[in-house]
Specification:
homodimer; Uridine Diphospho-n-acetylenolpyruvylglucosamine Reductase, domain 3; Vanillyl-alcohol Oxidase, Chain A, domain 3; seven-stranded antiparallel β-sheet; 15 helices
Chain lengths: 465, 465
């Protein structure tokens, strides 16, 4: 596709004029300085394209109008939420329009039905806050929950820390309005909790990364407020011991959170901000129980016993909420701590829980071979890990090694019966590896669905496929 | 489509000969007496067609071979599990073949990964039993769990009693092998717990009722064994009071089970087998907590208080497992009890929980107007109800009234923001009402997916669409 601006064919600028005429100048942004802010997501990928314009939709009708226009002209549309994506799913494309949903951010709580009716631009944290005012809770909690949007969460089927007990985004989406490529708005599902009438189209759109339609409203299931959490922190001599504890814990109870940090990430956090973590630990497990009342102590005791049997070197428990939160803060500090060590490529590979030790050993080998540091933090209870490939952006050799290592980690995960992405999505950054995981027949099936729903290929081209 | 046997065109019997040659005589059943046993499901619909043959597949390769053959000849294939379906999803079609998966019933438990790897013909109860041998639990529990197959559960996205806390079948399907219309076998998902690589094709096949492919293997998530359950039984003067208690309970805790019986079904059960239920009650709620240890008593106390505030006329609690099971037996006795009162048409409508009273009042009005009895039992915590239209099969007027009432109940549910089916599926019995719920645009979208995956329309034609 040709780049926009001066070099774009005249028909394109005529098309943009038509879009402005349809939607208004305040909705269609064409100022290059403003467009610039909408070109990239958190991957900060330098290869992001230059869009003709950014549409900042106010209503579902604006979204419909944009897609009718795009269909008529065959112009690509990249839907965009808060721009916090980690796999390049909302990187702008040359000659397309970026359709930002950031203005559509209404949140309405239906207390009796225990659902939130949410526009896609609302932040995850805003939904949580609105629900909590009524003693309700929206569980999915990506680490970025304060700044990521529900639209993006639905598009990527986002996960988080509490998934190990409470599931991921798709488990909470009861209904949605979605605008199809031709501008048709369809309503799927609703406020009922169980519904098997017709194909599971709702579930197909969750995780489709803007390639099948644009979600303009989501109906999200809420549950009663989470009870107080008790916390356990256990250190282990090796990642393999810690992984055995993870398998053991999940066979006995359903912890509310079960995170792992390897020794490199523990030390990165300590370098960044001394938090008193044991630098000599081969791995650290952070677990929580939110079982009601006295049952939390029971679950914590169970986990402590499992950790002892797996050879924990030190085990600390607390039911003080602030103390527990301090450990979570240390865990969340891993990303900024590691970012201080160099440029990063963030992985999201997942494997069956019992092969976590093999995955982590393999990653250590890849790091050594390429002379790179690859610290790992993990939603260990789900087998979902975030190896972080640290490198020197100023050194072409380091950048090349990092990209090689990035690919090798995905290949390793696939070889272990795992996935290249557990919660971030494929986007544009991981799509080269997708056929290696899915194989030609599943790729062909994916293409048939895509072609059936977006025959012109205007919806987020270059993402996933 | 023409009927088989003598009137079928010669090409059909040649085609069957070819199928026998490909699969063997022991796999392809052509004896009319044997075929008869595979023509209907529990709906016992007299309009079931006459298939050319029944294939009793032993392996996924048999399924592939059958579909390659069917594609080559353009012959319809009706997949069939245990034949316990309640909406006619596996009724045979004239001139087609019924593809029975009853021989493929292997169950393998991977303890470390906490998954069951299951062939489609295995019964739900067999999976539960195999899991329990390792201290694990497969939660989805249709009332028919002792006799329904996992393949059918996946095909209908089956629910049950514990869904209110533990979710439905789709929440437990981590992976599957599925044979497409042309015989291609694809593997989706796997033993990893989180996976967002590519479109959610896995979730699309769950609940597709055999119209998109034939599942030959499912990987099912298991959780730790359910703790002991405590039970609460509360009676109310009216269904509306009981429904207020349901809303109140679900706003505070997540009960492990929350069932409702209306006064007609309570009396039907007492007529059938005296269980000491209060015949004068307007409605009865049956709830359980499985919170660990002392927390169960806490949850039961919370539910008791909510029931008192909603005006319960009597509230009984027990943590005796046998006593709790006796009440569940009474609840499960509702179907046989009601079947003794006449021929039945079984509904599966669902609504948002707060409008349950409106749904039940509307059903009572429909019953009165048609001079029919329509008792209701409900998975109340999910808003999923089973009104049962009792009628006299020997009276054409009664049969006509029952079918009218059946349709009116679905229309009522749709009008209340609900669904025509919460867990049984659309099959052939409810498909006339599906467009009323989904509307033309969603029907068109459904058709596009169907055509993309089954362009010849050979997979379970007449179901859903």
């Amino acid at each position: 596709m040709s780049t926009a601006a001066a070099s774009s064919p005249p028909s394109r600028s005529t098309a943009v004029d038509e879009l402005v005429a349809r939607l208004g100048d305040g909705v269609v942004v064409t100022r290059p300085e403003t467009i610039e802010a909408y070109r990239r997501d958190w991957t900060a990928d330098a290869s992001a394209g230059m869009p003709l314009a950014v549409v900042r939709a106010r209503t579902a009708a604006d979204v419909q109008e944009t897609l009718r226009w795009a269909s008529a002209h065959g112009i690509p549309v990249v839907p965009r939420g808060a721009g916090s994506g980690l796999s390049g799913g909302s990187l702008a494309v040359d000659g397309g329009v970026t359709l930002s949903l950031d203005r559509m951010n209404a949140v309405e709580i239906d207390v009796a039905c225990r659902v939130a009716v949410v526009e896609p631009g609302a932040l995850n944290a805003e939904v949580k806050r609105a629900a909590s005012e009524h003693g309700l809770w929206y569980p999915p909690d990506p680490s970025s929950f304060e700044i990521c949007s529900i639209g993006g969460n639905v598009a990527t089927n986002a996960g988080g820390l509490c998934c190990v007990k409470y599931g991921v985004t798709t488990d909470y989406v009861l209904g949605m309005d979605v605008v199809l490529a031709d501008g048709t708005l369809v309503t799927l599902g609703g406020k009922r909790l169980k519904d098997v009438a017709g194909l599971s189209l709702l579930k197909l759109f969750v995780g489709s990364e803007g390639t099948l339609g644009v979600v303009t409203r989501a109906i999200l299931r809420l549950v009663p407020a989470q009870p107080e959490r008790s916390t356990l922190v256990a250190t282990f001599a090796s990642v393999s011991d810690a992984a055995r504890a993870v398998v053991g814990v999940c066979a006995e109870i359903r912890p509310a959170l079960l995170e792992l940090m390897d020794t490199v990430s523990v030390n990165a956090v300590e370098d960044y901000r001394a938090m008193g973590l044991d630098r000599s630990a081969g791995a650290l497990l952070l677990a929580q129980s939110d079982a009601p009342g006295a049952a939390a102590a029971l679950e914590i005791a169970t986990m402590e016993e499992v950790c002892r049997q797996a050879g924990t070197t030190e085990c600390f428990v607390t039911d003080d909420a602030d103390e527990g939160e301090a450990f979570l803060t240390a865990r969340r500090a891993a990303f900024p701590a590691i970012e201080r060590r160099g440029a990063i490529l963030l992985e999201d590979v997942g494997v069956p829980v019992p092969v976590l030790p093999d995955l982590l050993a393999g990653i250590a080998e890849i790091a050594t071979r390429h002379g790179l540091e690859i610290p790992v933090v993990a939603h260990a209870g789900d087998g979902n890990t975030h190896p972080i490939v640290v490198h020197d952006a100023a050194s072409p050799a380091s950048v090349a090694a990092a990209h090689e290592a990035f690919g090798e980690v995905m290949t390793l995960a696939i070889g272990l019966g795992g996935t290249i992405t557990g919660e971030h999505g494929v986007g544009r950054l991981k799509k080269a590896a997708l056929p290696d995981q899915l194989g030609p027949d599943v790729m062909a099936l994916t293409r048939r669905i895509k072609d059936a729903l977006d025959p012109q290929g205007i919806l987020n081209p270059g993402a996933i496929l």
